[in-house]
Amino acid sequence: MPVKIRLQRHGKKGKPFYWIVAADARSKRDGKYLEKLGTYNPNVNPAEINIDMDGAVKWLHNGAQPTNTARAILSYKGVLLKKHLAGGVKKGAFTEEQAEEKFNAWLEGKTKEVESKRSQLSDAKDKEEAAAFAAEKAVNEQRIADATPVVEVVEETPAKVATEEEAPKKETIEDVAAEAAEEKAPEASAEETPKKEA
After folding, report:
1. What are 183-196's pLDDT values in tens digits?
2. Domain boundary among 78, 105, 135
3. Separation of alpha carbons 68 and 59, rounded Å
4. What is the distance between the alpha carbons of residues 158 and 80, in angstroms, rounded to a whole number?
5. Domain that holds residue 63
6. Total count of domains within the chain
7. What is the pTM assigned to this prediction?
8. Cα–Cα distances in angstroms (integers) from residue 38 to residues 6, 9, 24, 128, 147, in the given order
9. Number of other residues whose CB lies within 10 A of the CB of residue 74
């Protein structure tokens, strides 16, 4: 029975999520599988990969052939390197401890590489957000400037100090009534004089 290590699609439309499985080559893509070896989530950057290292190495030693995508994932996570080092130990090229040291050194370098990529992505995202915020702030300030009416400043002459003569007199109700009576009185006398002459 030819065994393949391949991806089995899960997730929803437009948001794929894959299981890494060892399955019979004749079974359907999302059909029966022999063993689930890990998961692959391409929706995040960098992609999130969880894999059972020992299980994958065991299947590779037993002759399972990975598909192209599965081979790239296994290589990225160091499964193929671990299989290669295990073959070297079996042939007597180096000891188990030396193989472990080589693998750990490679793993450390890979972890640093992934962390640097994450930090670069977060820095780029922060710069992009800062630039967008600055642009939005400039647009808002321009809108505020356009909305406020322009007021011309006219230089005013110093106000004269009102003297007692120029100051308006405060009128009371009685003063207003007296003025109104005086205005009516001359009119009444003018009306009476023509009657007397007639």
Report:
1. 776 555 555 555 55
2. 78
3. 16
4. 92
5. 3-78
6. 2
7. 0.60
8. 11, 12, 17, 34, 59
9. 25
